Batch of 3 targets.
Target 1
Amino acid sequence: MIKKITRHIKDMGIEVRYVALDSNGFFGCFNSKPIIMINAQLDVITTAVTLLHEVAHFLNGDYDKAISNRLQNNNMEYEANRFMIQKVLFLLDQEHDFTPHTNYYQIIHSLALPSHLNTVVYDELAKLIQDKYGIDDDKATYQYYQSAQESANYISSYRKVVPMTKNYFKMPIDDRLSFLFPEFRMAKELYTLIDSDRAHIGEFLDFVEVSKDHTSQEAYFKLKLSGMANQTDALYVLALDDKLIGCVDLHGMDLLANKAEIGYWLHSSYANQGFMSKAIHQLCTYAFHNLGLNRLAIVADVANTASNQVALKNGFTFVGTEKEVAIKSGNYRDHNHYYLLKRDFMATTLDK
């Protein structure tokens, strides 16, 4: 089945490569040729879902695409997407045995496709269920469950969102390190983390001074979640073995210019172990290949050696130093500026 799907993708003029990756996969253009990179260690289901996700973005022009003119026709794009969805739903049904009670909302969410394809997923799943059980009325095909637990066994691992021991949800970076989606109930734990390391975290970051209790973190979450809704921000809490250790974020996001700035902080107990460098690499992968950004920037105090090293280790280019641009503890501070372009990140990934 994967060979058939891959062959169909290649017929569209898109190259598929199976390589060693930290993430499941991503797409881009290399030497003006559209290409999809897939983690060679994925199982069949995850490979199929990842291929579907990336091809849908290509065909629907979500980001830069360099596909032959014959695929610019809307009907061609629609039929190609429908074909991919049919094949992936077939594989998912083999794995999870869909029934008339299947929660299709969970499937739509897990596939993470462009929103206008949701109806295609619904239609194709309805046809699959009708053929499988001889149901004629597709209104009777689905019963909506309130509990996500009913459908948890077939949530796609494309996103790799799994429950933690504290019932947070995470996107693994590796076997120990994960991004967590911010939740208000983690505010107390995050405040305790900051409060236990004020001297280190607050040396270069102003927010520590105004962080007085857990309500400060709740207010920050509200601000960033509002930014997420407005597509100007993205915030993720960094966890190691289910323990909160820091935060990473995108801010100043401009979807017209496809750019954003990265921010990050880490508790001193976990410094100099490569955790933040690995987290920022994963964030860059997500920003370039899921959000469609083209340019990422990092600004670091010249005296913040660790922060500057994170930028350099991830291939960011040093632009220059902005003199006396900020005041911290009554002293003027200089900031180093770095940038990373999607094409440079893509080329570096292909070279590995």
Target 2
Amino acid sequence: MFLFDWFFSLLRAIGILQDKIKGRVLFLGLDNAGKTTLLYKLKTGLMQQFNQTMYPNNETVEISSSCTIQVIDLGGHPLARKLWKDYYLDVSGIVFMVDAVERKRIHEARAELYNILKDNDLAQVPIVIMGNKVDNPSAMPEFELSEQLDVTHLRTGKNVDQSFGAQRPLEIFMTSVSKDFNIAESLDWLASRIRK
């Protein structure tokens, strides 16, 4: 076993074998938005219900045949949000998940998103905003979510070939974790904008 480990380490060191792990991604958002459900659906392929996230979940997840990311899923309740900043170091991307049905909390979500956007440690970190639970007929549409979060002017486009200029890559995708709607597209968008 030692010989195999040494051999593969040597191949990685000289660049012949590449690790598939592309970066470290934070799953952030208010409680009950679907972050932990998404993480474990990506990990296991199964839909599960979870209680409130009390401790960070750390998993390695393959989001495509050529891209694996380390995901840190942080709780969204008020006490957990105070600790988000402790995880900002060496972050490659952020998934900010919003419950698109919960209009009463959209201002709270906007405030937390703006705390992320104004943090200097995250100035160039790409952010994908997932408006989740669109399988519910009362979910807000994309234009409303964009306006309510006040990010319309910050969006960089879904299909734009990003040159990583001065503007941080940021886009909204309307999703449904339970129906697998737009999950792959939003994560592909994020993976293509992660600098490694």
Target 3
Amino acid sequence: MGDKKISNEKKAVIKSWITTVVVLLLIGGTSFASYKIIKSAKDKKANAAAGGGWGRGGGGAATAVSTVKAETSILKDFVITNGEVETQVSVDVFPSIGGKVVQINVSLGSSIRKGDILAYIDPSEAGSYYVNSPVTAPISGSILTSPVKVGQKVTASSVIAKIGDISNLQVTAKVPERYVAYLKKGQKAQITFQAYGDQIFEASVYRISPVVDPATRTKEIILHFDQKYPQINAGMFAEVKLFTVDYSGYPAIQQDALTENGDDYYLYIVKEDSTVTKRKIVRGKNVDGYVQILEGLSEGEVVVTEGMLTLYEGAKVRDISGNVEFKEEPPKAPEGGAGGPGAGGPGGAPQGEKK
């Protein structure tokens, strides 16, 4: 009987311990679940306090962009052609009689005066003797060409030398027939030379040929430099940028600033709050990488020119060109939303209101 009583007491103790363990497990599980619920609520509140951010779907820093302020400007259309530098005045020198060249007194570039003897011609024939005939300079200047050599036979129609005034130069160029309608006297041009890189020499159209060359379908023009350039030499090869027509009355933006969607073109305009709006525009003339904006852009508006590949309507941007001051304020949260201070106001229900 005693052993049985002790056994019952052990069973009671074990049962009590099991009950205690079960109760503790239930309490621990409930506490853990409560902790997760509270933590989840805190996380949501923290996320709301952080606000929706600046950008699509919330979050994200402002995109750095380059911009330009739209201004009404003039696009100058042009045609590029080649030319050659010549003297404005030049004379071919001929002998008065045919014969053999026995003496030449000048060379290419020689400076001469009117009346100087350039060469001597011996008109003698077999069985006869003549005094050498001098060839004299009809004007003062420099020798531009001297195509003959001593011992060479010449006639009265052979050019002994060409003399020109190298202090007054011009450029002779040929313009394709399709641009003839744009040609006019006084038209401006910019001349460049390989020897001087990107240095520009200003010139104007002085004379226009009255005919089109049927062989080349071009019209010859002569341009005079707007001032004397001592570094330019007769005979140099020139590249001529001839301005043909001006397009004015509209803002002009670099072509790369436009985004394309099918047949439509758009610009990103920066607003005062440092966000952008994507706006459809109508293009005009395109000249040398710049395009007229006929509709959709007003003078003074700020246009994104670089960095627009990742932009979208309402995107936040930082203008590194300095045309728009960056605004730090994020957009306001929608009414009724659980936004924190970062979303423009306190989140959740107002104080004192029961949830």
